[in-house]
């Protein structure tokens, strides 16, 4: 009888819990799931932003437009007189067919994205939307390099400010200044410093040091664009990583280091045997938060490079605001959501972030 009464009470408590949670579930559905579902549906249409044009359901055409990729072989150009492959007189390299000659034009137009050579044959990679494919690559490179540098530098800063020295509180406050600056403001500031003439700080300093001619186009040269953006992001976000890692260092008991000193362990041995293992949960959480934030990077690309080079988020903005292609922009948003969701699940499992940590 007592068992039955206990079971009945547990069921009533469970029902009460569901009733109390019901308002939260309704609000969550209204502010999260409904808009997300609306974006998914819009991505399957040709809807145009801010217009009265009739909307049609087009299925997966937006996704095919964004992710359409093909690879075609480029045939060498043969000299009819000698029967040998022609050589470009300007570059001295063998000549091949123009990519536009071999890439499909139907059912959609493919444009050249890049070329590669393997087993003596040359191939061209074509994309129906090369700007979006490039934006994926730009975002991934930016994420990997910026997060790696921010983690290394942030850990170094956290170790320094965690040690005891005079003025430690002031140093901890000052290190947060770059992170406190609004991203748009810091982007404009760095844009001035990266000016392609001696007006820019870096060109002025390099000119004084005899490096370059004082006219290095950091933001116009394709090879320097991503490194410049990574440098800006590292300057701004490293303090955030340092702050998260400092919080983790504060949780490590001092008694462990005192015992290690008694045993004669060096500082390097203490770092790898005590600090790094015990810092792993905080480091994993910091990496997850920072990486997912970097995958959604928008402001730095948009403010500094605009349409010179896209991230996934800035290309989404361009399609929605400039091109007014709301269907395509929604499809980009869905792709970003899926990529980040998959990345988050894999990343969390690899880093071992769980409830026990």
Automatic annotation (TrEMBL):
Residues 136-347 form the ABC transmembrane type-1 domain. InterPro entries: MetI-like, MetI-like_sf. Pfam families: BPD_transp_1. Keywords: Cell membrane, Membrane, Transmembrane, Transmembrane helix, Transport. It is a multi-pass membrane protein. SUPFAM superfamilies: MetI-like. It is found in: Cell membrane. Its main location: membrane. The chain crosses the membrane at residues 20-41, 136-161, 173-193, 283-305, 326-348. Gene3D superfamilies: MetI-like. GO terms for cellular component: plasma membrane. One of its GO terms (biological process) is transmembrane transport. Belongs to the binding-protein-dependent transport system permease family. This is Binding-protein-dependent transport systems inner membrane component. It comes from Halothermothrix orenii (strain H 168 / OCM 544 / DSM 9562).
């Amino acid at each position: 009888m007592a068992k039955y009464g206990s079971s009945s009470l547990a069921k009533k408590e469970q029902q009460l819990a569901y009733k109390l949670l019901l308002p939260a579930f309704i609000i969550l559905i209204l502010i999260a799931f409904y808009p997300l579902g609306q974006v998914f549906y819009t991505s399957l249409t040709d809807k145009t932003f801010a217009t009265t044009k009739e909307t049609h359901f087009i299925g997966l055409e937006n996704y095919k437009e964004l992710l359409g990729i093909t690879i075609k072989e480029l045939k060498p150009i043969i000299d009819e007189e000698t029967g040998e492959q022609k050589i470009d007189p300007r570059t001295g390299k063998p000549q091949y067919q123009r990519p536009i000659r071999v890439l499909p034009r139907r059912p959609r137009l493919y444009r050249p994205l890049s070329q590669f050579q393997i087993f003596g044959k040359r191939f061209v990679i074509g994309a129906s939307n090369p700007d979006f494919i490039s934006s994926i690559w730009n975002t991934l490179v930016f994420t990997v390099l910026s997060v790696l540098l921010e983690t290394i530098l942030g850990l170094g800063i956290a170790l320094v400010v965690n040690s005891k020295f005079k003025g430690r509180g002031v140093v901890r406050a000052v290190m947060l200044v770059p992170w406190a600056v609004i991203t748009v403001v810091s982007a404009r500031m760095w844009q001035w410093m990266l000016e392609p003439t001696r007006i820019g700080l870096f060109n002025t300093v390099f000119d004084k040091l005899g490096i370059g001619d004082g006219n290095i186009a950091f933001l116009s040269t394709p090879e320097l664009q991503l490194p410049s953006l990574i440098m800006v992001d590292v300057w701004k976000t490293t303090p955030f990583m340092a702050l998260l890692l400092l919080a983790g260092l504060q949780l490590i008991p001092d008694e462990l280091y005192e015992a290690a000193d008694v045993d004669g362990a060096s500082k390097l041995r203490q770092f790898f045997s005590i600090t790094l293992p015990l810092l792993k949960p905080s480091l994993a959480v910091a990496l997850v938060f920072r990486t997912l934030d970097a995958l959604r990077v928008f402001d730095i690309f948009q403010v500094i490079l605009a349409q010179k080079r896209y991230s996934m988020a800035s290309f989404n903005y361009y399609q929605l605001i400039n091109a007014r292609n709301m269907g395509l922009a929604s499809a980009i948003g869905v792709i970003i959501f899926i990529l980040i969701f998959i990345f988050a699940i894999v990343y969390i499992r690899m880093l071992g972030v769980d409830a026990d940590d």
